[in-house]
Amino acid sequence: MTPRVVVDTASPVPPWQQLTEQLSHLIGAGTLAAGSKLPPIRQLARDLGLAPGTVARSYRELESAGWVTTAGTKGTVVAHRVPADPWVMLEQAAAQYADTARRLGYDADTAAAAVKAVWG
Prior knowledge:
Keywords: DNA-binding, Transcription, Transcription regulation. Helices cover 54% and strands 5% of the residues. It has a two-stranded antiparallel sheet. The chain has helices at 15-28, 41-48, 52-64, 86-103, 108-119; strands at 68-70, 76-78.
């Protein structure tokens, strides 16, 4: 995989979620094209300094969201029909943001205020 992903293990966002968000962004942006093969779980875990279970969870999340498919010996590949509905993508991003805000101890009003502050 040519595009670089970086996982910050000191971040309050779990590594599996960081990886999932970055890969879904690369796929959604077309940087990882349909049919592109993702690295094997063990290889990517080794490259990123993560546990294989962390990468496996990210791949499962991507598969359940429709970004990738996994086919035994063929490995994990970018789906040919990735989620394209902008509203679905916005909802997914909002759900991830809400999870992060909750983990950091913020309520919905504070999280919404943070979005408004950066919206400009």
